[in-house]
Design goal:
binds zinc ion; alpha/beta; 216 residues; two-stranded antiparallel ribbon; 8-stranded mixed sheet
Amino acid sequence: MDSLVRSDISALEGGAAAEATDMHAPENGGHARGRGWIEVICGSMFSGKSEELIRRLRRAKIARQKVQVFKPRIDDRFDEDHIVSHSRQRISSQRVMTSTELYAAVEPGTRVVGIDEAQFYDDDLIDVSQRLAAEGRRVIIAGLDQDYLGRPFEPIPQLLAVAEYITKTLAICIQCGAPANHSQRLIASEERVVVGAEDVYEARCRSCFDPGLHHQ
Ligand SMILES: [Zn+2]
């Protein structure tokens, strides 16, 4: 967690991150029994999104809540059936292609639904998340909020609008050490995300970020 600087109005339940400023949000008690809600964890690459997602899901498991975790089939890094953070925290997950497939895979008794790499899903993820919350589930979504040009990355902006709790994670700028909000691409590519090639990105702050760099 030491690479994290967070400013959030968040659903962090614990005091695990010394640098986080959070308002404690419901794990069990804050919301009435049977009510659902949506939490979004978003930020640049290397900002600790998956780490934070895994932390919340683990706590739900400790509380003996039934948890299901999903990641897009496009993401082949590290491990087939786990979400793994950069610091090697892991939790078992299911792989799905589309939001519709995700919704269909959620089992009746599931209380908490974790969704990693949400930027790889279609816009139906917004509706699917709303439905899951309406059914009384806690939905925790992690994803990139900007692409390599600094443009808002759908469906995260729309999910932020409908979420009850939002956590913005910041990395550390590789150039100057300031809190970093951008994923700087270091190679030429017009793909919106170069999958499984995180060594061609680095975290940068607003001043050091150069959206034209990948053309040079
Ligand atoms: Zn910088």
